[in-house]
Write a structure and sequence with these properties.
Elements lengths: L2 E11 L3 H12 L4 E5 L23 H14 L3 E4 L2 E7 L2 E6 L4 E9 L3 E3 L20 E2 L2 H4 L8 E5 L3 H12 L5 E5 L7 H9 L4 E2 L3 E7 L2 E7 L4 E3 L2 E5 L2 E3 L2 H5 L24 E3 L10 H27 L1
Parallel strand pairs: 1-2, 1-6, 2-3, 6-17, 8-15, 9-10, 9-15, 10-11
Antiparallel strand pairs: 4-5, 5-6, 7-16, 12-13, 13-14
The chain binds flavin-adenine dinucleotide.
Flavin-adenine dinucleotide binds next to helix 1, strand 2, helix 3 and helix 7.
Length: 315
């Protein structure tokens, strides 16, 4: 499928809650929209319930993705599974290319490619964590999930910096005092962090993981390189989150200090005319409601932009 005749009003890269919410508004306003998505977003795998999604108590990630997809397609937007590897062009004629060489063009472009999270590694391999990626009792996002560990014995697994791991522990301490800290990445701590942890009698372990023990998608224990087994009710991963800015950068967009794509205003518009950013790719906390909101805001302004720029010309 190749369509470079520029007949799409908007191409959206990323079919998570941000990209699909944007597609919904644009399709509702009769814009011709194509969403290109490689389906690696967290909600494609989250089988257990999401928290804090207004109006949708208890919905799973998978169900939310399916519901949004149906709603968007019913209004006429197209959704295609594809991995976009190249972005070029400018307002009026953005061009995307997939890893299979397919090309698509549109007047405007929205990037909602989300962030990549690092899983803990087991003997250097991150894939064993996929067995627990359906969520159950392994968490990654304090803003979204911290209340899930209320009063539970929880291992905080530091994958990257010790500062990040202690910061996660500090956030979680509001919810449970029964924490253990495993520094599987950086093992040295700042003096203040060391004092904070010791004052609260939080046990610290500084080594890699040799084995994950669990069943039916729920983790029961991590076994450390020296054989120590840390059993717990919950496991909270503190890992680097890397915004997927490759396409934004190909189009000349700068990234912020936090590594996010830079936007010009809360609308999600950018320094590149005709290019918008939404969802986790923007420098803000990662939550479904926020992703949807930023997708909707971007779409409202894309629709108005199209009306001003192209309908005025046609008229
Ligand atoms: C384990 C876990 C549990 C969570 N639980 C909650 C919760 O309970 N409540 C809550 O509010 N939030 C939760 N979150 C956060 C929430 O999932 C995110 O904030 C939200 O999914 C962000 O939406 P998004 O559309 O910006 O990005 P994503 O959902 O990450 O979607 C981005 C999409 O873009 C695609 N993509 C990226 N690059 C390309 C490319 N080059 N070509 C094609 N496609 C591409 C990806 O495959 C992906 O499908 C959780 C996150 C995780 C990891």
């Amino acid at each position: 499928m190749t369509n470079t005749d520029n007949s799409y009003d908007t191409l959206i890269v990323g079919g998570g809650p941000a990209g699909l919410s944007a597609a919904l508004h644009l399709a509702w306003h009769k814009r011709r929209v194509l969403v290109l998505d490689r389906r690696t977003g967290p909600l494609f795998f989250t089988l257990t319930k999401l928290e804090n999604v207004p109006g949708l108590p208890g919905i799973s990630g998978v169900k939310l993705q399916q519901t949004l997809r149906k709603q968007v397609e019913a209004l006429g937007a197209e959704i295609k599974r594809a991995n976009v590897v190249k972005a070029s062009g400018q307002a009026g004629n953005f061009l995307l290319e997939t890893d299979k060489g397919e090309q698509f063009a549109a007047k405007t472009l929205l990037l909602a490619t989300g962030i990549a999270r690092y899983h803990p590694t087991v003997n250097g391999d991150w894939r064993p964590c996929l067995a627990y990626a359906g969520k159950c009792n392994v968490y990654y996002c304090p803003d979204c999930e911290a209340p899930e560990i209320d009063d539970k014995q929880t291992v905080v697994i530091g994958v990257g910096s010790s500062r990040g791991a202690v910061s996660t522990a500090q956030h979680l301490y509001e919810h449970s005092k029964k924490l253990l800290l495993l520094l599987s990445g950086e093992t040295e701590m700042r003096e203040n962090d060391e004092i904070w942890v010791k004052e609260r009698n939080i046990p610290i372990y500084r080594q890699g993981i040799a084995e994950l023990v669990g069943k039916r998608g729920c983790l029961e224990a991590v076994v450390l390189a020296d054989g120590i087994k840390l059993s717990a009710d919950a496991f909270f991963v503190s890992s680097p989150k890397v915004p997927r800015t490759d396409l934004a950068q190909q189009l000349g967009l700068s990234v912020t200090k936090s590594g996010h794509a830079e936007v010009k205003s809360q609308r999600g518009n950018t320094a590149v005319d005709g290019l918008w950013i939404a969802g986790d790719l923007r420098p803000m906390t990662q939550q479904v409601a926020i992703a949807m909101g930023t997708g909707s805001i971007a779409a409202v302004h894309i629709d108005q932009y199209l009306a001003e720029k192209y309908q005025a010309l046609a008229g």
